[in-house]
Structures are given as C-alpha cells and as structure tokens.
Design a protein that fits this description.
The chain has about 375 residues and is α/β, with parallel strands linked by helices. The chain has two domains: about 170 residues, Rossmann fold; about 200 residues, Dehydroquinate synthase-like, alpha domain (Up-down Bundle), CATH 1.20.1090. The chain contains 13 helices and eight strands. The protein has a six-stranded parallel sheet, with helices on both faces. Strands 6-7 form a two-stranded antiparallel ribbon. Bound molecules: nicotinamide-adenine-dinucleotide and zinc ion. Zinc ion (ZN) binds next to helix 5 and helix 9.
C-alpha cells in the first residue's frame, strides 16, 4: 500500500437560503470589515443582491467593501487590486462571490495582503503562509470546486500562461452552497461549468495516485452530475438540480485534491492562448483523451460507466470503455457543447504553442497513461 494523507472537509453550509447565515458567521471568525471580491457580471445578478442583503442586517458596526474587477481567467493585477483595497480599508476577511475566477482571485489576494511587495512569479509555497485573512467562499457557478480547493489559478504579471498558487492555508474557512445563487446562471454556462465538474470527477478517479477516499467521492459526483445537469440546463430555477450540481462540483473539487489528467493540460492553454472558457475547453477535449487512454489501458472507464448508470459490469474491457466513452460524448453533446475547438475560435496555427504549454502543464503527469508532447499535439488536432 502506498502512503497517502487525507485532510478535509471544509465547513460547508448547503441548501436554499443558507447565505442568510453569513451574517451570523462573520463575527465568529473575527470578521467585521470584509472585502467582497467578485466580477462585474455578478453585480447585476440576484446572487449579488442576496449576498449584499445577507451582509447588512443587525450589524451596525459592520462596514464591507467591494472589489468587482476580476476578469474571467483572473490576473495578478486583479488580485493586487483586491489586496490594495483590503489594505487601504483595514479589511479583516475576504468573501469570494462568483465562479472559479472570482473565487481564485479572492483566495490568492490574501497572499498579497500578507506580502504586498511579492510578485506572484516569485511565490514560494514552502514559505510561512499562516495568518492569511479568513476566506469565505460563495460559489455562483457549479463547476470548478475552487471553494473547497487549496489552490488558485491566476495569470502572473507578464506571463502568457496561468500559474497555480497552492497552499493549505488558502482553503476557505466556510463555504455556502446556496442553489438560490445559481438559478440565474445562463444555460450555456451551466453546461460548461457542470462539465468541468464532470471532468474533475473522471480525471481524478482515473488518476493512478492512491487516494481511495477521493475515488469514492468522484464516483458519487459523477452519478449526481449525470442525474442533475440536464435538468439544471433545461430548467435553471429547479433548486434540487441546482443544489445537487453545487454539491457535485464541490465533490469534484475535493476529489481532484488527488490530481487531474491530460484533459486539464489541454484546457489550461486553450484558456490562456485562445480565451476558451475552462469548462468548455474540457468538455470538447474530454472524449478524445478518454479514447486515447482506453486504447492504452483497457477497462480504465468501466467504473465510470457504472457510475453513469450503464450496465457494463460484465462486458469486456473494450466494450465497457466503448459504451462509457460513447455515453459521455453523447452527454456532452446533449448539454449543448460545441463539437470542436474550431467552433470556439481555435485555429491550426495555434496548435504548436498550445502543445508547448500543455506539455509544461503538470496535470498530465497523473494521467492514467503517460503522454508525450506529440500525443498532446495529436489530441489537440483530434479535437480541432
Ligand atoms: N481553483 C481551482 O481549483 C480551479 C479549478 C478549475 C477551474 N479554475 C478556474 O476557474 C475559472 C473558471 O471559473 P468558472 O467556470 O466558474 O467561470 P467564471 O468564474 O470565469 O465565470 C464565467 C461567467 O459567469 C458569470 N456568472 C457567474 N455566476 C453567475 C450567476 N449566478 N449568474 C449569472 N452569471 C454568472 C460571471 O460573471 C462570468 O462572466 C478559470 O479561471 C479556471 O482556471 C479553478
Ligand atoms: Zn477544471
């Protein structure tokens, strides 16, 4: 048996209206002057209004501050802007409201609040990061799982690829999974973010690292997503489906503390170089990566198929993989995802740069089978 280490979960409140508990929670964390970090798109949503309403009542001495300039695929400048606002106003806690972009910016800005002179390119995860401001995560998409993760994805100043900033101290102190905050998420983003969560569960389960607790969580996450995502897309105000998706996304986030696979190595440069949304990039690339893996490790997807509800217990390895990949491919299409990278603006002239970055990305190191730079290039061409 390989050695391993488990430490979770994060304190998580789940259900319609739980955001109302935020007001009572903050003083228990010593937070009286929180900074809310979000993106401009959120300001017009009910999710923002509900958060603002939850911050006000009964706390006459509470001031809160707003940083709403987070970009999709956040940058160091975004996190620095949030940190400067927090420092200028003596904030004592950070609330991230939004999808993975806002949550990651909120998470990582605490590093720059502690060390304002630091350039993220020089971040040292082995330094002492104790004493970061408390972080409360309020996801408004059901996808990235950033709310329960120990890392934030931010593009450092001057770089053309994303950086991953990891530390256990980055974890949220409390997470609110409130389905009333996701009912306004449009169908296209519901699909793309939900398929990011599905990719987390599939890639973490099939990664060869010994982490059986994560494996169990990944399989149940898959079952929930297959059940709830089509309803969440078709009827955005269905609170049961929205709630199941929030929980499944958080489960994907816990599961991939184990690790991810080659699909994510393809997706990261697709966002950095071509601006493709993270979940959309995963959804387009996942079936090609699954076919590649199944050819080299027959049977690798049998238990994924079972989690999807397929009767593949006693068929051959090849059949189990075929049926599972066909099901996932069809599920992604039924969610309304574009069938190819070409449809989201990727061109053949981008492929070499994409392959270079994908090769440098660490996620493929825990793919079920080894991949070379040429394999990654071929996978991009297949998905084109
Ligand atoms: N930290 C991690 O573990 C992790 C994991 C996966 C992805 N990521 C990162 O997360 C980012 C992607 O996050 P995402 O997919 O959640 O998208 P996002 O945060 O970029 O948001 C996409 C869009 O959805 C809008 N939006 C969000 N919630 C809404 C709501 N309830 N109603 C209406 N509009 C809403 C936002 O305004 C934004 O325009 C990428 O930067 C990716 O690298 C991080
Ligand atoms: Zn992802």
């Amino acid at each position: 048996m390989d050695n391993t280490c488990f430490n979770y979960p994060t304190d998580t409140q789940v259900g319609p209206g739980v955001i109302g508990q935020l007001n009572g929670l903050l003083p228990t964390l010593g937070v009286h002057r929180p900074l809310v970090v979000t993106d401009a798109g959120l300001l017009a949503t009910d999710a923002y209004k509900k958060l603002a309403a939850a911050l006000l009542p009964g706390e006459p001495d509470r001031d809160w501050y707003l940083f709403s300039d987070v970009q999709p695929n956040p940058t160091e400048a975004n996190t620095r802007g949030a940190a400067e606002l927090a420092l200028a106003n003596d904030c004592d806690g950070v609330i991230g409201l939004g999808g993975g972009s806002a949550l990651d910016a909120a998470k990582v800005c605490r590093i720059l609040i502690k060390q304002p002179q630091l350039k993220l390119a020089n971040y040292d995860w082995e330094a002492d990061w104790s004493g970061l401001l408390p972080f409360i995560a309020v996801p408004t998409t059901a996808g990235t799982g950033s709310e329960v993760g120990r890392s934030g994805v931010v593009t450092p100043d001057g770089a053309d690829s994303k950086g991953m900033y990891f530390h256990p101290e980055l974890l949220a102190r409390c997470v609110f999974l409130d389905p009333e905050l996701t009912t306004g998420l449009p169908a296209g983003l519901t699909a793309a973010t939900g398929l990011d969560a599905l990719t987390h569960c599939i890639e973490s389960f099939t990664s060869p690292i010994f982490q059986p607790m994560c494996d169990g969580i990944a399989l149940e996450g898959i079952r929930l997503i297959i059940h709830a995502l089509p309803t969440a897309i078709a009827n955005g105000s269905d609170l049961d489906a929205r709630g199941e998706m929030l929980v499944a996304a958080a489960m994907g986030g816990v599961a991939f503390q184990k690790d991810l696979g080659a699909t994510h190595s393809l997706a990261h440069p697709l966002s950095a170089i071509c601006g493709v949304h993270h979940g959309t990039a995963n959804a387009i690339c996942l079936p090609s990566v699954m076919r590649f893996n199944a050819q080299r490790q027959p049977g690798v997807y049998r238990r994924i198929g079972i989690a999807c509800g397929l009767d593949v217990v006693s068929c051959s390895d090849a059949d189990a993989d075929d049926q599972t990949i066909h099901f996932i491919d069809d599920f992604i299409r039924r969610c309304g995802m574009p069938p190819s990278l070409e449809e989201v603006g990727v061109e053949e002239q981008h492929i070499e740069a994409l392959a270079d970055q994908a090769w440098l990305d660490p996620c493929h190191q825990t793919n079920p089978v080894p991949v070379t730079r040429e394999d990654l290039k071929e996978l991009f061409l297949k998905a084109l």
